[in-house]
Automatic annotation (TrEMBL):
Protein name (record): BIR-domain-containing protein
Region feature (Disordered): 1-36
One Pfam short name: BIR
Upper lineage: Eukaryota, Fungi, Dikarya, Ascomycota, Pezizomycotina
GO molecular function, one term: metal ion binding
Amino acid sequence: MPPENAHMSSGRLATFMVGQGPKRRASSAKKRGGAALLRWPHAKPSPEELAKSGFYYVPSASSPDNCQCFACGVMLDGWEPEDIPALEHHAHRTECAWALQCYIKHKFDIDEPIDEDPMSEEYVKGREATFEGWPHEGKRGWKCKVAKMVEAGWFFDPSPSMEDGVTCAYCQTEIGGWERKDDPM
């Protein structure tokens, strides 16, 4: 189960910053030879790259670099320095909405042409799936409903400072603080 705030990149990142491992009292661990807390073992990929790609850190003694996606639950380990988390995530779980958005963002970041149709059924469903928990969906009279947000090309990308933050995967514009009359188009 993901941490309570695993949908936020900063919450995911925090899981890489603290030692993970068995919960034993310090005195018990010393007496038994102790199970050391596990820390992220690689310089690359970085915890920041992994967190942005939807992963939080869930190591075990047999898999000290195991990560899990907060959205789809896929678990990946065996990370290599040349691995790009956004691409690995998408390759292993193409139906994950978050993986799809990260894949698009990665292509944009490296100036690779995005040949896919942003209004294709796959991309529309992917954006729509990110809006679980959209805070304005149930509000009467609000224009920024999920269907309009998705049609406008937004995906839900909340953060501690913007609970209703959205990002356009194609131009990387990020906005939040939506109000009743704001039109997503």
